[in-house]
Recover the amino acids of this structure.
């Protein structure tokens, strides 16, 4: 009887619209969820086979839900450098635990990039999923694969530190006064090493901080003594002298600098003309340290007072991790307290032929399905993958105005479906009363 099918049609309408209301509720509840993808409900008419042209059997409606995964939410600025977003197509590769991935293991994909360093040094998002990346070797190479997960590893920055680097080059930019009186050897003839021992006071002296192989700060002094027109004796010595006991006064290098009549360096003789080696006190454990003083293009002799403009040295002490940065290539680099930085991981972007076919899972992640197709893992902004942006989060793609409008329409449709049932019930009641 058609009246029964009408009633069942009303029941299917109630079920379909209640499901649609549940999807709308989820959307509204997740308006502020990072990386959330809005769900939509599609309705499909169910048709019953008809027994004749004079009667009609109602089939009702069937609802199905899908996620608008390929619709990007707005990108909003964040204060954390490890908050990441993808501008364009793709997903971050994550896992449920901090163990290396195996193909098809616990891999998942997400757009929720609110990552931070946990207590064990792993980079995990607010939902507890661990970010995967390609390790960057010390020589800068990366082993990657677009289809294999075995080259990925959970990103961990624990125990990341910068080692000490010994100073090997010193560049001194200075002027030696051309009006300086030439040293008079009448009372004390200059012998190499006299400035280091203090037997003769240098006419100009400057201190320079360098670092040994263990990262310890050392002080070197460079003294100048004008011994003839356009000619200066130069000595480099350690302070205190006991730090480099190989020569009296801690002298580590000496030489002569001669100038042209126009104030530029004409020539440098002695150890200062090339690399020399500093042998530190053996009890410190520091290695013998090759060093070069670059003076030929930075020293001048003009008729102004003697003075140092700049001192540039390489070498750094040991450094601890002070911050993390991610560039647009997806390279995660560690910044250290000694001013150095080092690239640690390259963050990949996974893309799918049909991202809307992915299966939503807890924690805002997605799993592959037959409908989504297999993943393709590429570098940021390459081969159709989106660009990774740092200090940015992707907001939910829910449109609140659209959801409220859909809520009103769904509510009315639910009420109308319930009216079908009450009307069919009244008609059945009328039919039963015919006998009376």
């Amino acid at each position: 009887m058609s009246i029964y099918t009408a009633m069942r049609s009303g029941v299917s309408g109630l079920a379909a619209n209640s499901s649609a209301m549940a999807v709308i509720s989820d959307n509204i509840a997740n308006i502020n969820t990072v990386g959330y993808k809005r769900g939509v409900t599609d309705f499909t008419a169910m048709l019953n086979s008809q027994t004749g042209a004079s009667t009609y059997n109602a089939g009702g409606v069937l609802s199905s839900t899908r996620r608008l995964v390929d619709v990007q939410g707005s990108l909003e600025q964040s204060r954390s450098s490890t908050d990441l977003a993808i501008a364009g197509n793709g997903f971050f590769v994550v896992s449920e635990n901090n163990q290396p991935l195996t193909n098809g293991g616990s891999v998942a994909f997400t757009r929720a990039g609110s990552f931070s360093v946990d207590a064990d040094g792993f980079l995990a998002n607010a939902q507890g999923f661990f970010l995967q990346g390609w390790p960057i070797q010390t020589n800068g190479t990366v082993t990657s694969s677009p289809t294999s997960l075995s080259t990925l590893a959970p990103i961990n920055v624990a125990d990341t530190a910068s080692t000490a680097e010994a100073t090997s080059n010193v560049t001194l930019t200075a002027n030696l006064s051309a009006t300086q009186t030439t040293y008079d050897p009448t009372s004390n003839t200059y012998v190499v090493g006299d400035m280091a021992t203090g037997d003769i006071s240098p006419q100009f002296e400057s201190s320079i901080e360098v670092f040994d192989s263990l990262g310890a700060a050392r002080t070197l002094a460079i003294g100048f003594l004008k011994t003839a027109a356009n000619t200066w004796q130069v000595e480099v010595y350690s302070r205190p002298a006991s730090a480099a006991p190989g020569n009296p006064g801690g002298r580590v290098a000496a030489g002569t600098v001669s100038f042209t009549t126009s104030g530029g360096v004409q020539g440098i003789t002695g150890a200062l003309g090339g690399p020399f080696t500093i042998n530190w006190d053996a009890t410190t454990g520091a290695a013998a340290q090759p060093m070069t003083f670059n003076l030929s293009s930075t020293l001048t002799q003009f008729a102004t007072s003697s003075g140092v403009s700049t001192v540039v040295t390489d070498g750094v002490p040991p450094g601890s991790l002070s911050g993390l940065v991610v560039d647009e290539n997806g390279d995660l680099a560690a910044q250290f307290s000694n001013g150095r930085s080092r690239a640690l991981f390259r963050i990949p972007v996974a893309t799918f032929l049909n991202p809307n076919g992915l299966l939503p899972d807890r924690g805002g992640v997605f799993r592959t399905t037959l409908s989504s197709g297999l993943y393709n893992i590429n570098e940021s902004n390459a081969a159709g993958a989106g660009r990774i942006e740092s200090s940015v989060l992707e907001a939910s793609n829910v449109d609140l105005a659209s959801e409220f409008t859909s809520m009103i329409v769904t509510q009315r449709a639910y009420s109308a479906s319930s009216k079908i049932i009450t009307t069919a019930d009244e008609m059945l009641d009328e039919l039963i009363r015919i006998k009376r």
About this structure: The longest helix spans residues 400-433. The chain has a mean pLDDT of 91. The chain has three domains: 2-71+397-433, 78-158+321-394, 169-313.
